[in-house]
Hints:
- The chain is α+β, with helices and mostly antiparallel strands.
- The chain has helices at 18-27, 58-62, 69-80, 86-103, 141-144, 155-160, 170-184, 237-243, 262-269, 319-332, 346-352, 364-369, 378-385, 389-402, 417-421, 512-532; strands at 2-13, 32-35, 52-53, 113-115, 133-135, 139-140, 167-168, 188-191, 194-202, 205-213, 216-228, 274-275, 280-287, 293-295, 303-305, 340-345, 372-375, 427-428, 431-435, 457-469, 472-473, 480-482, 488-494.
- Strands 1, 2, 8, 9, 10, 11, 22 and 23 form an 8-stranded mixed beta sheet that branches.
- α1 (18-27) runs parallel beside α7, α1 packs parallel to α16 and α13 crosses α14.
Amino acid sequence: MTNSEDTYDVIVIGSGGGLVGAYVAASRGLRTLVVEKTDVVGGTVAYSGAGLWFPGSAPLRRAGVEDDAENARTYLRDVVADGSRERLQDAYLRAGAELIDELEQNPWFQSFVHGPVPDYYSWRPGGTPAGRTVFPPALPVAELGELFDLVRRSLPTERWGFDEGPVVSGGRALIGRALAAFLETGNGTLRLNTALENLVVEDGRVVGVEAVSGGERVRFRAGRGVLLAAGGFERDRELRERYQQVPLTGEWSNGAPANTGDALRAGIAVGADTDLLDEAWFVPGLVQPDGLPVFHTGTRGGIWVNGAGERFVNETRPYDQAGHEIVRLHATTGVRHIPCHWVFDQRQLDRDSIGGPPDQPLPEEWLKSGALKKADTLEELARLIDVPFDALDRTVKEFNGYAPTGTDERFHRGESPWDRMFHHIVPFPADPRQNFAARSVPGYPNPLLLPIDTPPFYAATIVPSDIGTKGGLRIDEHARVLRPDGRPIEGLYATGNTAAPMSGRVYPGAGTPIGSSLAFGYLAVLDIVNATD
């Protein structure tokens, strides 16, 4: 039985990046409903640093970064190298700067700030080591009041109960600000614990949604449009096994647990085309004592070795590139790379800790659980991680030979602007309490290349994780969902990981996934408004 409900102008499915699009609609006087599957808002965005890759935007100008859309266009054309996505790129570049200007007019959003995170291919034409990523300001919990209880907690808080303190940053700050701004318009309605089932189509146009709430089927009508912003399908075993090239079933994902492809399935059911379903925003995952990985941003010391005991990548390489390399090599070389092993020594552990801030003692559960192996010799460590000792010994000796000169002759770790970000004491823009840098050690010119020679020796496990699947419904420059013949499905829009990205198989810079979610949600609302004015 379906219980008929109200009619809205706009319905947004999902409350991560789509919440900003919902605010944009509600701020224009459109009655807007946000349908959220879980009991909190924020999705994977709430886990993130909330970086937004928005070239030419006001926060960059305020920081003195010389950049404009033309430089970024040159960069995207070069690194993505896919003519079919050029119109999407142009729309994205226009929308990002415009959206920031609009959001900063609302006191809830305040002023975004530039973070010096280099483009991930900064040496390519149009790239910049200064980066184009902007972040929302931190948010005191007290300012949100009771609304804070509706914001998804950070991943460490959900997993281990860490106390976030009186001020939240990154994704929680962005979501909290967007939620307050959305509800304050007086045109916004939030429906939690409501899961999308189907899109309602009449005369070829999407006019609403059917969902399940509290075990009851409900229907909401959309007078102007439906925006699908419900994330990817990273947590759905069946879809991942169908589309992904290696056996990743979702358990290792760092995407929100409810991201099971509901919006993707609903779009396909009404005739939508899809693209890049074999892709994900892959990242290395450091397996924790609870047996599951956490997104590992960059390795400051030690090496990664595959099942043959050999090093295979610059371990500090931008995470999407490192994650993709693990997946690619496992699928193509016949050598086990899933899992691979992070090998380091006591000096490295003393300097950088593991999975946390420096100067903290090693928690006992790392060794008790087996997440971290410990041995007095490399030979013993090789047995513990089941790799050939002769190969591991040879690999470590080769790596140690690079330490006195500071030059990684094999994979060039420490040479790119991204790598060099880890050389220095630079606070992470989304949370000044965090620090990514590796401290220098006398006698070694590259702090990312300390020799592995101080027993005991350790090995942790690295697996391919992700921050969401990347492929989804094909959209045009207005975020309209397209049929296989290129015609738009009237009334249906998509953004974020529900849509195939403007960046194709490439991750151009920090904040591209969330930036895309916000930018194309904004473009969807502009199209809805322009189509009906």
